[in-house]
Amino acid sequence: MAPAAPWLGWAGVLPFLALAGAAFLPGYRAQALVAFLAYSLAILSFLGGVRWGRALAAGAGAGQYVRAVVPSLWAWAAWCLLPPAPALAALAAGYVLAGAWDARGDALPAPTAFRRLRLGLGLAVVACHALALAALASGAA
């Protein structure tokens, strides 16, 4: 894994944290939550792309490609079909599911450092979703 990967991965958590924090500010709540949901959709889709690339590199079977498109479809459905609170919960669940697929028992090859990074980033992102849900609950957007 490239030395820049952890720095870039953790930098990608910063918008989640900033937007979840901004959602506690009444004048910014609605806009921050929309931006949070949009960013979450993009990053969950990105994780599907990472899986697709790993499947290509491994010469994987069809099941791995199905798993690769699920995060994008899941995120799109959450964005388009659900109100904010359920969308936040659904996206958090999508990160948990994608993380489980990238965990130690995953059939696709990956360096241990990748798996550790994915676990840490996934936990941080799910925590940010919980924070955004708390902001939403603190005052309707």
Quick structural overview:
The protein is mainly α.
Written account of the structure:
- The structure is a single chain.
- By secondary structure, the chain is mainly α.
- The protein has one domain (4-138).
- 79% of the residues lie in helices and 0% in strands.
- It has six helices and no strands.
- Helix 2 runs parallel beside helix 6 (112-138) and helix 4 (62-81) packs antiparallel against helix 5.
- The longest helix has 30 residues, at 29-58.
- The model has no long low-confidence stretch (mean pLDDT 95).
Number of strands: 0
Percent helix, as a range, is over 70%
Q: Uncertain segments of ≥5 residues (pLDDT<50)?
A: none
Radius of gyration equals 15 Å
Main sheet attributes: strand count, strand direction, barrel closure? none
What is the percentage of strand-forming residues? under 5%
Mean pLDDT: 95
- Number of continuous helical runs: 6
Elements, N to C (H/E): HHHHHH
Please report the distance between the alpha carbons of the first and last residues.
Answer: 41 Å
Count of all domains: 1
Write down the overall geometry. globular
**Class based on secondary structure composition and strand pairing:** mainly alpha
Give keywords:
141 residues, mainly alpha, 79% helix
